[in-house]
Every structure is written in structure tokens, then in C-alpha cells.
Amino acid sequence: MRLVRVLLLVVASTCLSSILQSQAPPPHLDDPIIEQRITHLLGQMTLEEKVAQTVHFADSSTGPGSAHSDYREQIAQGHVGSFENITGAPETNALQKLAVEKSRLHIPLLFALDVIHGYRTIFPVPLGMASSWDPGLVEQASRIAAKEATSEGIRWTFSPMVDIARDARWGRMVEGAGEDPYLGSAMAVAYVRGYQGARLDDPQSMLACVKHFVGYGAAEAGRDYNSVDISERALRQIYLPPFHAAVEAGGGSVMSAFNSLNGVPATSNRFILTHILREEWGFPGVVISDYGSVAETIAHGIALDGKIAARKAILAGLDVDLEGNVYSRYLAELVRSGAVPESAVDQAARRMLRIKFALGLFDHPYTPAPAASGKPRLDPANVEFARAVAEHSFVLLKNEDSGGSPPLPLSPDVRTIALIGPLADSASDMLGPWRARGDAADVVTLRTALTSRLQQSGGKVIYAKGTEILTAEGNLFAEAVAAAKQADVVIMALGEDALWMSAEAASRAHLGLPGNQQQLLEAVAATGKPVVLIVFSGRPLILTWAASHLPAILQAWFPGMQAGPALVRTLFGDVSPSAKLTVSIPRSVGQEPLYYNELNTGRPADGIDLTRPPRNDVEKYHSRYVDEPNAPLFPFGYGLSYTKFTYSPLELSASQVSASGLNQKTAHPLHVSTTVRNAGPRPGEEVVELYLRIRGTSVALPVKQLEGFRKLTLAPGESKRVEFTLGRDELAFWNIDMQLLVEPASTTVWIGPSSAEGESADFVIAK
Ligand code: BGC
């Protein structure tokens, strides 16, 4: 508990510029001594040994008859640079021994894994963690993941995924921080700091891999792996910032995306891999392909065979081939034939060796063996922290106060609760997708935690599964309805299947509750009992019916191993929900892609009642739907608490700021402040959000853009003044000449509790 309190204090003073500039310097990949050692080593290496550093195996393809059934032999001969999906100190050490003792130059292997939201201790999925708006919590969770993973030999994680996701049909939305580049950048930095720690050569530090570079979240129609066509401005304004922030924070590796970007597969896209990443940003680390994506450029249609695929990728600046198996086959031959200069292979090998040296692998290749065999033991402090993180990830979407008291928090005197739904007792789903060495046996479900809570208070829980998650089979409605009828209050645990419907290759064309869960919900609600809906999902679902028929909805995402205790403490008000949406929740699928920071268009539908079809031409000829409002059901940045917060009118330090002064760094920035008060009866945390609209510029800018946030902890009646800085970082954008500059403009600033509310003030950006 003490740990959590300390973190919250730190977080209260968090803003992006301080996140990017504060604390210890990032671990450096430009140590001259390391460069000398690499030069010396490269001088001894054969062409094949250099190529080996560009070769990455995944153990899933090591079975008999597979491409790597002889992988031990290949490691011993020094043909492999890195390896993924092997866990455990004895297992990684055994392979490392082959590399270090048998291969000619004794170059260590680097072991990787997708450690996405915890390794042994499983935290909420990344979308849930982002909903905390608390980079401090994310950094701490990532540090715990690094400590656990490195104890099993893993020094490289393929995380964070920093893809901006504006389309809820895309299953991988769950793996990132949502739709906004500013929040996404803050979270990207937090993950990098947590994984990499103060020094990469700390044996408990793990190299981050920032993925998927770039534009993957803009997959057309939300269909995974689909093509992406976006303007360079959108790329720079929306999709690149979290990558840039992560690289600036010292993120040591980047993974290229599966998608094609403006016609060129990201994996062999020289514009992004070399021009932006190396020449503009000076990135010194490694770029690895996504799984098999170098060879997939054949299917994309830009290579006729593996040899051409390898040539195009290495020349574009792609260093390591993850299981595409074309670098291992063709790179040496391509160099010998003159199709690829040896310097390209030298450079890729140098980058891989650079991260191995920086991680200290040459000096300490092995992981100390654990005292006991089997999975590493869970640390109770980490488990408790996972519960705290989960509590900070739940977004209270509705808690209707219709005259009496709202349904949440539940009364401590509640006698009988009906707990209904296929997610109420599904330990595995609570872990979400990508669970590393997490174990469903360690999960405490909502059913278990709620039953034990009610036992203590002399009440009881009547549990009914009601239906399966995905299928209408096992229709158990009658039992569920009977349970509801006996209860004082009903809690329904509904949502998605974590593995089938969430993460990679899990795009959905329908975003309703799957199977017949909607029918179950309606059947139970028809009993007239108060229903609290808890939604478990990796993306926003369509909750339009629920929002108009039920008194309370809590969005729980996939909360991790402490799902049950965190939910029960929230339901009973031991803690108040404090998370806010980082993705817009649509009313219907047809609104997707849906995001708050849209452009205004020439025909915005301002002032028109969009809840009914247009009645005349004046209502019709606007950027709108004839059969659905434009607005989301719940907007970005939104989330309720058990208490209430008020915001005072904004105070600006000046009504004008100079564009040229800010561009030349001679002008002082503006300051804008408000006082936030906890006007309710309970302690609570509030995410205070700052948005800007800039008009009169050379290119159209969003109707609102997040440019700052703070998380405050306030006792009942307590007030805190919050001040934000508005300077070059907040006011510059990629202008008509594709330069990142501040332009003269008219500006509105809002500070408030969501993207749809807030106090506002105007100021001018003069010449
Ligand atoms: C995913 C990546 C992941 C990789 C690991 C791919 O299928 O797209 O996100 O890191 O597998 O091999």
C-alpha cells in the first residue's frame, strides 16, 4: 500500500515534458568503448558470422521437420543471433552455453519474449493500464515485469506496442494506449523506463522493443495486417510521436510493422526505417522485423522471391529478420554477388552487437539459476501492486443517481447478490492476451473474491453462468433469471473471449457482446432488479442498449491476475474508480474509425439535433449520419468517480504569445491554471485534462487535441490548483511545408474532466 501512495504523489506532478526530460538519463547506446569492442570483433568475423547477428529464431519453429529442427547445432556453429520463446534460466543458459562455448567467436545469444503486461505477475492489459492515465504505475509494472523476466534469462521484450488505434474493430487496440498521440507518448516512455531501468547492463533490465513501426493501427477497416494509406502529415502528427518519444527515452529496439505503408511494406520501407528513424531521429538501436514479415514482402507483391525480399529489406534499413528465414539463406550470397554492399550487413551486425554489449551480455551471458525448479514464485508485494494497478484501470461509465442513491458503491449491508455471466469465473480470460508466464491458476476471479467478501459480511452470492462467451450453446437463461429474482442486486460479468477476440488476428466486424450475451442481459434486466454491468473486453464494445436501460456500467478490460479482489474493492467503495477512457466508445460499428481529435470539416453538424434523422436540407447537408449521432456513446477522456469534482474558470498568464518567439525559443510560454475541488463525500483521484484547438493555420488542425494531463488525489472538500505550460511543444504542428512550427493563430484551451467537457479560455498566437 505504501508503494502505491508514493507513486501517486509522483504522478500528481506528471506532464509529458517532465516525463520526457526528468529523472536519470536514458541508457546510452553510444558508448565509445563499446564501439571499439564492436569494431575489433567485426574485424574478426566472417561474412556468415556477421549475417548470423541478423538472424532471429522463434522456438515455435524448432520442432522435428521444421526449419530449425537442428537449432542447437546452428547455435553452436554461431549461425543465430537471437532467439525468442525460450524461458527459464536453465533452458536459456543451456542454449547460451552452446553459443558462448562452442561458437568460434563466443558471441552470446539474446533471448526475447513478448512480455506485454507482466511476466509472472500479470497486470491489466495495456489498454487497461493506459486508462489509469498514470505513467508512474505503468513504469512500475514494467519494472516488475523486467525483474521477473530477466530472472529467467529474457533480456529483450517485444513491448511496448505504441500504435495509435482509432478503430475498435482492430483487435490489437488492446495492446496499446488507445487513440491519442500525447497520452500514447507518455505511456511509451513509461514502458521504456520501466523495462530498461537506469542502466541496460543492470542484469534486471530488459531491452524494450517499440512496435509496430509504423501505422499498423490504421489498418484499413480495422482488419489486421491490412494496408495502410495515410498522409505524411497524419503520420507525423498522429502515428509517429509515441515512437519518437520512446526512442528519445532510450528505447533500444524497434519492430517494423506487418502492414504496407502508402504502398511499401513497412519492413522494407526506406522512408521510415532509414530516413525518419536513423537520419531524422538518430536511432542507434536495432530494427527487427515482425514475425516472418521480410518473407511476407513476397505476398505483398514487391518481391518475387526470398532473395529479393532480403535485399530490399536490408537496403531499406531492416537489421534483423524475425523468422522470415531469408537473411540466413540469402544475405551472404547477395553480398558475394555484389547485390548488397557488405557495409549494409556490417551495419546491421554492429547494431545487434551494440545492444548485446550494452546489455552486458558479453561479460555476463548467463542467468543465475533459481533455487527451485519450475515457474518463478510470485512475490506477494507484486501481486498486491497488480491489484492496485487493476483498481486504477476500471472506468465507471454510468452510475445513475435517479433520486435515491446510485447503485455503486454497493451497500455494505447488501444481503444477496446474483453474479451472472460467463466472465464472472473465467480465470483464463482475466489474464487477457499475451500472458507470458502468467498462470490462470493464480488468478482470483470475481466469483471467488465476491463470495469471500459476502461470506465475511453474512451475505451470499448466487452464481449463474448464464451462457458461454462465444456461443449460444448451453443456454442457461432460466437459472440466471431465477438467480436475479432472488437477489437484492445483480452483477453481470459479460464481454469478450480474451484469446479469440483480442490482440493479433482478432479483428471484429461486429462490436456487440458476443454470442447471446446481449439476450442474457436483456432477460436478466427484465426482472426489474438493479443490474450493474461489468464489461471485460480488449476494445470498446457497443453498449448502447445497456447505457439506456441499466443503472450502472463498469468497463473492466482484462484486469489481470487480481481481477476479483480489485473489482470487489471497487464495487464496495474501498476505492473509487479513477480511470478514464483512452478510446472513444461508439454507439454503433458504422461510426468507426472514431476518435475525438478529428478535423472539423467544412460542414460540421454543430447545433443540429443528431439524435433524429434530418427533417430538411438545412439539417441534412452536414457531415453527419442520417441514422446515428456523430458523437460517441462515451467520449475519450471520460470516466466517473464515486465523488464529484468541480473546476474553476481558467486563468491565463497572458492573452497573447509570439509564434516566432516560441519558434526561436526566445519567448516565454503561457501558463494556464484552474482549481479542482473534490465537492463530493469521498476521497478520489481525478485526471485533469488539457485540450487545445488552434485555428487560422496553414493546415486544418483537430477540433481538440490533448496537450497535457495531471492526476490529482483529493480528500473530500479539498482543492488543488493545477497549472499547465503552453509553449512550443504544445503549440507546434506539422505545417503546410511539413515543418514542425508554431504559426500565428487563434487558440482555445480547455481544462476539464473529459474531451467533451471543461472550462475554456481563448488566446492569440501573434506573429
Ligand atoms: C506480433 C508481434 C510479436 C511477434 C513475436 C508477431 O506475430 O505481431 O507483436 O512481437 O509476433 O514474435
What does this structure look like?
There is one protein chain. The longest helix is centred in the middle third of the chain and has 17 residues, at 342-358. A six-stranded mixed beta sheet has the order 11-16-15-14-12-13, with helices on both faces. By secondary structure, it is an alpha/beta fold. Helix 14 (306-316) crosses helix 15 and helix 17 (380-391) packs across helix 23. The two termini are 51 Å apart. The structure holds beta-D-glucopyranose (BGC). Beta-D-glucopyranose (BGC) is lined by residues 58, 84, 114, 158, 211, 290-291, 322, 504.
Structural class: alpha/beta
Low-confidence stretches: 1-16, 18-26
Biggest sheet statistics: 6 strands, mixed
Number of helices: 26
Strand order of the largest sheet: 11-16-15-14-12-13
Determine the fraction of residues in helical runs and give it as a percent range: 25-40%
Tally the beta strands: 27
Relative strand content:
15-25%
Could you tell me how far the N terminus lies from the C terminus, measured between alpha carbons in angstroms?
51 Å
Rounded mean pLDDT is 95
- Our Rg estimate from Cα atoms comes to 26 Å
The distinct ligands, each listed once, are: beta-D-glucopyranose
Q: Write down the overall geometry.
A: globular
Outline:
This protein has 767 residues and is α/β, with parallel strands linked by helices. It has 26 helices and 27 strands. Beta-D-glucopyranose binds next to loops.
